[in-house]
Amino acid sequence: MQNLAVCVHTQKRLYLGLLLASIVTMVAMAASIWYLAVAPGKSWLGIIILYGLIIGVCGTILMAAFGICGMLITIYRCRSVRLLQSPMRTAVNLLFPIVLALGRMCKIDRDRIKSSFIEVNNQLVLAQHLVISPQQLLLLLPHCLQNSECPHKITVDINNCRRCGKCAVGDLLKLRDRYGLVVAMVTGGTLARKIMHQYRPRAIIAVACERDLTSGIQDANPIPVLGVTNERHNGPCFNTKIAITRVEEAIRVFLPDKMNPV
Ligand code: SF4
């Protein structure tokens, strides 16, 4: 787990910091609503609506605050707190747009924030210490891994790959054969959702760029997704690459006997 672990320790602070800032923003919003509620000249109905809003916002803040506490405890202990799983999911999904907006205001690169989000997510997934059978594990690959000149239609059936060695797909299929997990290649979020629905995995390893991984992790919720970013030496969405060792490390995280492939 060397590569995954290194990423986790270098990038997670940015996302966690922005999460805390988003809580402060929400508290400021609640205070503004409160101020409006008590301002003179409001009708009873207006006041009731405003109080309803305050309760809603405060409830959300409380839930998100528990979620952030859960994340911090989980990352610190490297062990998941079962009771705080639901608030953690709320915090991850609900506060993400606020985090992005805050990042934009602070002129922080979106990809950096997304990358940090992925590392926090990976740390939370690792802390679950989930052990499953290979058949319950789905490896989702992006279409851009396939060599652009390859004539074989592998999104229809990945077994159409001839394993010629011109891209990583052949080696990824070798991993599938060695470990016995399910592998699928997708062209976008809609197909990814369809595959998830079809196989109903207990965990997913997703290879993609920061943008697709971020939305995929949120879409798959509550299924845990371990994200592995691809390498884009030729620009986005074109002949991308992946280090097979990183994918293999991710696979071994979930399997019962990590040292002895089936
Ligand atoms: S390894 Fe498979 S997918 Fe990649 S170029 Fe060769 S045949 Fe095509």
Automatic annotation (TrEMBL):
Highest taxon, organism lineage: Bacteria
Transmembrane segments: 14-37, 43-76
Keyword match Hydrolase: no
Keywords: Membrane, Transmembrane, Transmembrane helix
InterPro entries: DUF116
Name this protein carries in UniProt: DUF116 domain-containing protein
